[in-house]
Amino acid sequence: MSVIDSSNAKEHSYPVYGRQFKSYRWYKPIIVFVLFIAVYLILGLAVCAAIAYIRLGGMPNFAELSTSNMFTNDYDEMELADAWQSAVGLSAVAVMIPSLWLVTKIVRDRPFSSYSSSRGGWSSKVFWKVFPVAFICISIPIIVDELVYKHNINNFQMKFTLASFAVVTLLGPLQCIAEEYVFRGLLMQTFGSWFRIPIVAVILESVLFAAMHPYDMMGKIGIVVTGVVFSLTAWMGRGIEASSAFHIANNMTIFYLQGMNLASITEATTTHDFILEVCTGVVFVIVIFIISRKTDWFSRIKKDDAAAWNARIDEKLARKEAKKTAKAEKIAAKNAKTGAHDESAPGKHFKQ
Fold this sequence. Notes:
Number of helices: 12
Strand content: under 5%
Mean pLDDT: 90
Distance between the termini: 78 Å
Largest sheet: 2 strands, antiparallel
Number of strands: 2
């Protein structure tokens, strides 16, 4: 296992990592994105249809779906204590992970692991090192705010069923990681590879991230800030483990609190919630920056994806060139043999 230092830090910059692969072409991320949308829609519809089939005991019709309370795009109507609604809502996002993985196998422009990090794929060690930091920075402030400042402790009511708690616990983290793969991985690295300026990629990706969330204007501004926090931590951490840890700590805390009637998920954002969101995000970025400077958490390379990928490309080109050379030599030898045979054939020489 090697270590990233000043001599190769630029090569492992996460936002622009896509350009390190010899198979990179500016248009390939567009192909990947278009195919990703197509595969995601197919897999997402298949998963939702399968859940609806199990829930309703057969192939559902529109009337059954409209009255089943399983599908909602409105945060105000989201009820995670409903196991079926949780299964549909969370799995519909989590399926982004296999969708992106499948597309990388189709396009073959770079390995799937390069979207996880520029250190050789997803690192569980890095994630579990950062997660306690994320819990302290975001989960504890949210819990204190909801229970102490807002006095929601008086509203406690266990709304979770065993089934819904299990669904949220299993699919909630996958939903967060899936968004990191798509927004911090696919989109940020695409913008980074095009503009070659990481901060531009951070801003563009964060705006798109906010646009995909149905909050009010203040809420969207808060999501832009959160998107910047996720992107900066992915940049400093050379992968999505740190941003995933913060994302999971934030979402799962709110999910669990809602399931106990101690918090609500709503599209409207108060000034107080906005300030809390910004402050916790800034603190987390500062802590991750210090960690990136003082430790080697984000500098250990399990595998140099770009180097390994480029080596395979060079090997293929070398084999292709060798075959081409061998074929040319074979043709030349055949022509030489044919020419020698013609020179010795009767009637080819005339005496002056």
